[in-house]
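JOB MANIFEST
job_type = single_chain_structure
chain_count = 1
residues = 116
[input]
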Amino acid sequence: MGKKKCLECEEPVQGRVDKKFCSDYCRNSYNNRVNKDSKNLIRNTNNRLRKNYKILTELNSSGKTKVTRTKLYDNGFDFQFFTSIYTTKTGNTYFYVYNEGYLSLENDLFLLIKKE
């Protein structure tokens, strides 16, 4: 059986039989390259959630207020990103970004609420 080669730089690997990399640097480089797409998706999603949370927090300083859809859009709010949904017994559906929620009302109005 020949010498095993590092999966990143193809240098010979010394040490344990199941070792795949010659160094921590090569192991990290390899894993960063392999996982790049999923890490970008997670980073971008977290950035969107953070931005939505910031918008809801700024527009709802009192803990309960009404705003227009236009005001949310103008601030850059993205309705595709939220962390949970809560439907009341009466059928109202609240969307939450962490503890900041919103409920769609009539005439393109939204009720913003903060869950304590």
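[summary]
Helices lie at 24-34, 36-59, 69-74.
The chain has a mean pLDDT of 94.
exit_status = 0
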